[in-house]
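agent> Task received from the user: take the single chain below, predict its 3D structure, and emit structure tokens. No templates, no multimer pairing.
agent> Plan: (1) validate residues, (2) run structure prediction, (3) serialize to tokens, (4) report one or two observations.
agent> Step 1 OK, no nonstandard residues flagged.
tool_call: predict_structure(input=
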Amino acid sequence: MRPLACFVNIVDKISLIIGKIVSYFMVLVMISTVIEIVSRYFFDRPTIWAYEFGQFLFGGYFLLAGAITLYYREHVGMDIIVSRLSARGQAVLSACTYIFAVLFLGVLVYKGGQFAYKSVIYLERSTSVWGPPIWPLKAALPVAGLLMLLQATSNFVKDIYFAVTGKSWEEKEVAAQ
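)
tool_result: status=success, residues=177
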């Protein structure tokens, strides 16, 4: 059981670290938006980069924040059904949906990897006037899928543990120390 606990703890930490890092992307999006607004409306000199830069950062944020969203279990769910179940019933239902998450995220990693591979090989760039590289954003797709797959697996382990024992994973960790 110890390797499983190690896996869950490492995946959870990775999700939290990546989530913290990408949260700063929104600060950069706001800064680039302010720069664009000031340049456009106060100096009548719009930038060629700020809008697209903000789009790319938001795209990366959207993709890479998926794992931390799974960690906090903040994805959209069918609360009208789930709320009627006991805590253990909710854990069982969540564990049952794991197979759908694996299928979706597996396809995302595989097809996203193919998509990203072509982009990285050709060092694909945007066709805009600014022309920044877009391969890093496309490469984030399979990485995000893999991070979410790992976090979904961590959540699955925690759900199964709770469904069987009635204790949360955190209670197990405290008791093990």
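agent> Step 4: summary for the user.
Helices lie at 2-42, 50-64, 66-71, 79-82, 87-96, 98-121, 135-165, 169-176.
agent> Done.
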